[in-house]
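Task card 7
Instruction: Convert sequence to structure tokens.
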Amino acid sequence: QADYLGSTYTTAWSLSFNNDGKKLFIVDGDSSYKIYEYSLTTAYDLSTLSLESNRGIWVDSAYPTGHSFNSDGTKLFLGNTDGGIREYSLSVGFDLSSTFTLVDTLDVSSDVGTNVKGVEFNPDGTKMFVSSEAAKKIYQYDLPTGFDLTGATLKKELLHNINYANGFEFK
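Output:
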């Protein structure tokens, strides 16, 4: 049985859960330019879902696409259609209603193009992986300090040749 979340958003570009599965985050980049935070009373059970918070994240002429959190949820990374990745700090981990501050922006447009779709990290945050739908590639960046965009350098490109691959995840 499928449930309907209403007309909350038109395109869910990316989604993720927090560590215990009791929060779900969905990025809408096409209509509201927001990231939505839902709470779940039972971990990973969508039938217990309720809207907790949403934040507007429109950036200049770009809209958000892929996203990723650091391990404790105090940093949020958002890919955008301008070829940028934005790093935000949250005063409370995995809580979009907490103080939400733009810390840094990494322009990867010369590597990835202007349509960053997926953003993922290795567990310690020293490797960032970015996908581009148009280029059909995943890019690996090395970060000198975990979950900090400062000093990020392109390490490797991987051609996957899959149409419409918007996101990915490592397990």
